[in-house]
C-alpha cells in the first residue's frame, strides 16, 4: 500500500503510495531525472524483502545508508488477508555495524486504516540493554513465561542480532506470538486482554513472511539482476515447488532433468501466448541437443534457447538485447498481470524496449493487472497510456526531504507527457523536478571538452559567459 524511505542513499525522506486500480491490481511507474532516487526504491525493496524473509542482511546493504548518516529506516504498510481485514505496518531501523548493516529497532502495528497512527503491538529494540528487549514489556514478558521463560526469548533475540537478521520475522518470534492462540490462563489479566491482537499479529506476520519468500520478485540492475544477466527462471515465479528459484542461461547451453525439461516447455508455451503479440511473428523454443548423464546419476537433457520466425530457428544469443530482455522478464510480467498475490519490481524496465510497445504493454497492465508491478523507467510513453495517471505515476523530485510525489495535472494540455515536459522546462509544481542547463550550454561544453586549440577554447569560454549573463527576455536575440 505504501513504502517510506528515510536516509536511503540520496533520499532523506520519501514516500511512495501504491493505489489499487479498478482491475484489483496496482501498477506504479517511478520517473525522474538521473540521480533523483528512483533506483533507491528498488534497492530498498531488495533489503526489505531480505528482512521479511528472516535472511541475514547482505554485506553490500551498508552502501544504502546516506553518506554521513549512521542509520536508515524503511516503513511499509500492507493490506492483510486476515479476517477481519487489517493493515500491517512494519518499520525497521538499520544501523551500520562492524560486520555490516544491522537491525537496530523494528516494530509492527496492526491498524484499522493505513492513515491510523496507533501504538505498535510489538517493538524489538536491539539498541538498548534491556532485560527482554520487547515492548510493551507487560505483554511480552507474560507471553514469554508461557513459552519456556524469558531466557528462551533472550537467546533467540541474541541469535538473530548476531546473525544480522530480523527477530520479528524469525521462527522464534512466531512461536512466541503463537502462544496467544493457545490456553492463556497463565497470562496476566492485562496481557490476556490483548491475546486476540497477538494471535492476529502472529497470523499476519506468518503470511507476510511467506509472501516475501514466494510472491515478491525484484529485478535490479545490480543485486539479484537476473534480467541484466540474461537468466530465465526454471519454474514460473510463485510456484509451490523450490526449483522456481533456479535460473538458466538464456544465451547458452543448459542441462536439466527430464522432469525440469517438461516444466520449462510448459513455461515456454505460456510465453508464446504473449510474445508474438509483443514482437511480431516471434516465438521461442528449447532446442534439444542430446542426453547427458548428470552428476547425480540422472539422465539430463542438454538444450539451448532459440527464437523462431517463419519456421527458422536462430540461437537466442543472436537476437537483440531488447528481445532477450523481454524474454527474461516474461515470467515475472505474466505473474504480475495474472496473480493477485504477485509483487514484481523491475529497475529500468524500458531498457532496450521499443517505445510504442512499452507504452501499449503498460497501458494494458493499468487496465487489467491483478497483481502488483513497480518499475523505474526513463521512457515517458506510459504516461500517455497508464490511466489514471495520478494512480500509476510517481515523480522523483530534487528535494531530498520530499523525494517522491504523485503525478498531478501540470498544464493546460491533456497530454500527461507534455505536461511533464512543461513542468521540467518551466516549473509549475510546488516541488522542483529538474535542474538543467540550456541546450546551448551543453553544446558549448562538448565543444570545449573536445577542443585542443587555445584560441577555440577562449572563444567557447567567452560565448558561454555571454550566455550566462544574458537576461531571459533577451536570450532569443542573443542566440539568433
Summarize this, please?
This protein is an alpha+beta fold and 480 residues long. Helix content is 36%, strand content 24%.
Fill in the keyword field for this structure.
480 residues; alpha+beta; 3 domains; 7-stranded antiparallel β-sheet; 15 helices; 36% helix; 24% strand; globular; disordered C terminus
Fold blueprint:
Layout: E1 2-8, E2 11-17, E3 26-31, H1 38-52, E4 71-79, E5 87-97, E6 100-111, E7 122-125, E8 134-135, H2 137-145, H3 150-162, H4 171-178, H5 189-192, H6 195-214, E9 216-219, E10 231-233, E11 247-249, E12 254-257, H7 258-278, E13 283-293, E14 299-309, E15 312-315, H8 321-338, E16 343-346, H9 355-368, E17 372-376, H10 382-385, H11 389-392, E18 393-396, E19 404-406, H12 416-426, H13 439-450, H14 454-469, H15 475-479
Parallel strand pairs: 3-17, 3-18, 9-16, 16-17
Antiparallel strand pairs: 1-2, 1-4, 4-5, 5-6, 6-7, 7-8, 10-11, 12-14, 13-14, 14-15, 18-19
Helix pairs in contact: 4-6, 13-14
Q: Note the beta-strand portion.
A: 15-25%
How many strand elements? 19
- The helicity comes to 25-40%
CATH homologous superfamily label of the largest domain: P-loop containing nucleotide triphosphate hydrolases
Amino acid at each position: 500500500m505504501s513504502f517510506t524511505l528515510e536516509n536511503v542513499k540520496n533520499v532523506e525522506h520519501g514516500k511512495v503510495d501504491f493505489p489499487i486500480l479498478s482491475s484489483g491490481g496496482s501498477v506504479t511507474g517511478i520517473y525522474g531525472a538521473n540521480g533523483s532516487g528512483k533506483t533507491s526504491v528498488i534497492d530498498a525493496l531488495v533489503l526489505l524483502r531480505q528482512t521479511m524473509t528472516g535472511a541475514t542482511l547482505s554485506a553490500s546493504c551498508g552502501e544504502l545508508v546516506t553518506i554521513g548518516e549512521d542509520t536508515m529506516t524503511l516503513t511499509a504498510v500492507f493490506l492483510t488477508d486476515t479476517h477481519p481485514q487489517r493493515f500491517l505496518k512494519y518499520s525497521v531501523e538499520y544501523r551500520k555495524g562492524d560486520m555490516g548493516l544491522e537491525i537496530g529497532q523494528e516494530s509492527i502495528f496492526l491498524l484499522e486504516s493505513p492513515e491510523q497512527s496507533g501504538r505498535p503491538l510489538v517493538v524489538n529494540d536491539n539498541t538498548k540493554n534491556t532485560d527482554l528487549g520487547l515492548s510493551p514489556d507487560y505483554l511480552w514478558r507474560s507471553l514469554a513465561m508461557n513459552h519456556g521463560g524469558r531466557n528462551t526469548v533472550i537467546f533467540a533475540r541474541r541469535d538473530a542480532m548476531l546473525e544480522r537478521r530480523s527477530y520479528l520475522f524469525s521462527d522464534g518470534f512466531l512461536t512466541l506470538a503463537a502462544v496467544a492462540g493457545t490456553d492463556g490462563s497463565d497470562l496476566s489479566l492485562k496481557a490476556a486482554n490483548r491475546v486476540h491482537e497477538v494471535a492476529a499479529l502472529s497470523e499476519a506476520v506468518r503470511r507476510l513472511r511467506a509472501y516475501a519468500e514466494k510472491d515478491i520478485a525484484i529485478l535490479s540492475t545490480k543485486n539479484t539482476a537476473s534480467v541484466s544477466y540474461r537468466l530465465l527462471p526454471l519454474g514460473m515465479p510463485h510456484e509451490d515447488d523450490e526449483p522456481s528459484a533456479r535460473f538458466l542461461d538464456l544465451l547458452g547451453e543448459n542441462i536439466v532433468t527430464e522432469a525440469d525439461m517438461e516444466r520449462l516447455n510448459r513455461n515456454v508455451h505460456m510465453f508464446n501466448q504473449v510474445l508474438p503479440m509483443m514482437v511480431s511473428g516471434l516465438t521461442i523454443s528449447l532446442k534439444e541437443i542430446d542426453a547427458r548423464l548428470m552428476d547425480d546419476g540422472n539422465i539430463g537433457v542438454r538444450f539451448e534457447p532459440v527464437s523462431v520466425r517463419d519456421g527458422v530457428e536462430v540461437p537466442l544469443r543472436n537476437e537483440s538485447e531488447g528481445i532477450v530482455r523481454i524474454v527474461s522478464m516474461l515470467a515475472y510480467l505474466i505473474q504480475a498481470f495474472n496473480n493477485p498475490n504477485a509483487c514484481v519490481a523491475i529497475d529500468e524496465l524500458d531498457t532496450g524496449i521499443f517505445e510504442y510497445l512499452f507504452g501499449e504493454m503498460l497501458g494494458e497492465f493499468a487496465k487489467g493487472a491483478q497483481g502488483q508491478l513497480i518499475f523505474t523507467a526513463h521512457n515517458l510513453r506510459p504516461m500517455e497510456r497508464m490511466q489514471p495517471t495520478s494512480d500509476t505515476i510517481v515523480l522523483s523530485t530534487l528535494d531530498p526531504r520530499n523525494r517522491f510525489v504523485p503525478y498531478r495535472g501540470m498544464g493546460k494540455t491533456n497530454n500527461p507527457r507534455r505536461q511533464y515536459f512543461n513542468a521540467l522546462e518551466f516549473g509549475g509544481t510546488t516541488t522542483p523536478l529538474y535542474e538543467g542547463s540550456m541546450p546551448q550550454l551543453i553544446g558549448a561544453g562538448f565543444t570545449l571538452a573536445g577542443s585542443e586549440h587555445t584560441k577555440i577554447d577562449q572563444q567557447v569560454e567567452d560565448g558561454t559567459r555571454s550566455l550566462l549573463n544574458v537576461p531571459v527576455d533577451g536570450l532569443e536575440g542573443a542566440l539568433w
